[in-house]
Amino acid sequence: xxxxxxxxxxxxxxxxxxxxxxxxxxxxxxxxxxxxxxxxxxxxxxxxxxxxxxxxxxxxxxxxxxxxxxxxxxxxxxxxxxxxxxxxxxxxxxxxxxxxxxxxxxxxxxxxxxxxxxxxxxxxxxxxxxxxxxxxxxxxxxxxxxxxxxxxxxxxxxxxxxxxxxxxxxxxxxxx
Length: 176
Prior knowledge:
By secondary structure, the chain is mainly beta. 0% of the residues lie in helices and 46% in strands.
């Protein structure tokens, strides 16, 4: 994720299967120099997860300070964060050098999946997705509801909202 301004940067996001068949989030950084070779044109993949825990990522964004944020889901405790439901929405921050800075999980009584992540120009980070249970204290109004949550750059939850009614609702993208 180390990407200097003079280089073209490409971040790839997906998942890798471990020996137990669990999916872990995988990010790969590819640097291409505009006028010379980057020191490490294909950076080593970063894997977020552990044996027996599925934690696939579905979305990625990068901020002007070089930080990268991934959003997804996990079905187990991750990086010191406790699981609150069957699965929780996942937000992770990597610094410009590719070092994991923090992980945040958000959920409720059942499953929650973050399908989108975006950043505003003031340091706010947003995740959006779906839940099929009580989510961060918000009652479930239908079978599946969309959710939106805002964090600051330090990983502190600012607020969360759910949206939906008697029909299923889900968010899969966001932009600021």
